[in-house]
Write a structure and sequence with these properties.
alpha/beta, 3-alpha-hydroxycholanate dehydrogenase (NADP(+)), Rossmann fold, 18% strand, SDR_fam, oxidoreductase activity, 40% helix, single chain, 236 residues, globular, two-stranded parallel sheet, 9 strands, EC 1.1.1.392
């Protein structure tokens, strides 16, 4: 095991886009710390899993501690964990608000703060957050205020952090997906969901992983909100 082999932390890593990101980073030769509420241990010695609620600061501490104990560094953080609740605005409950803000905002804040503190020691690092094209392109049939409130905040925080750390060797970017074929969307919904995109179909999970890997290798790119949304943000 090379001491110079890079390490990526991926949240929401147990399934869907998160699991695809773990696979993509391992293919790129990274060691990975993967976290999610119910994630299981991995047989791959270069993947460490940490089960826990990402909205809890203790989970963030345990994830960073695992990265340092096992691999002695933190190079990349991918904030993939997210909760989406589609309801009319006046139907949201206090519980909905608490759950979405805990995962989408607290889950971003705690682990990003701790990860950047480690990156500062090396004067090198990369943070990527997965947001949503709904922030820029609301759809009348998809009520999404809590997603826009929280993920829109991450888009803004991405630019703010990118500027704050621009001279430290730490880059901060985001990927803003359209609707992606993942376990959260049953196959019978794919045709209707695909029609919401100008290209006429949904995206694949690998499309998001490829976008994150592009940003990983794009050393002159920071503060970017990269739309991977089948043209949604461009218009209809």
């Amino acid at each position: 095991m090379s001491a110079s082999q890079k390490v990526a932390i991926i949240t929401g890593a147990s399934q869907g886009i998160g699991a695809e990101l773990v696979k993509a980073y391992r293919e790129r030769g990274y060691r990975v710390v993967a976290t999610a509420r119910s994630i299981q241990p991995s047989e791959d010695p270069d993947i460490v899993t940490v089960a826990g609620d990402i909205g809890d600061r203790d989970t963030a501490r345990r994830v960073i501690a695992a990265a340092l104990e096992k691999f002695d560094r933190v190079d990349t953080l991918v904030n993939n964990a997210g909760l989406f609740v589609a309801k009319p605005f006046t139907s949201y409950t206090d519980e909905d608000y608490a759950a979405v803000t805990s995962v989408n905002l607290s889950g971003f804040f705690h682990i990003t703060q701790l990860a950047i503190a480690e990156m500062e020691k090396r004067r090198s690092g990369h943070v990527v957050s997965i947001t949503t094209s709904l922030v820029d392109h609301a759809i009348s049939g998809v009520p999404s205020v809590l997603a826009s409130l929280t993920k829109g905040g991450l888009n803004a925080a991405t630019k703010s952090l990118a500027i704050e750390y621009a001279k430290t060797g730490i880059r901060v970017n985001a990927v803003s997906p359209g609707i992606i074929k993942s376990p959260m969307h049953p196959p019978e919904t794919h045709e209707a969901l695909g029609s919401l995109h100008p290209v006429g179909h949904m995206g694949e999970m690998r499309d998001i992983a490829d976008a994150v890997l592009y940003l990983e290798s794009a050393g002159f790119v920071t503060g970017e909100i990269l739309h991977v949304d089948g043209g949604q943000s461009a218009g209809h």
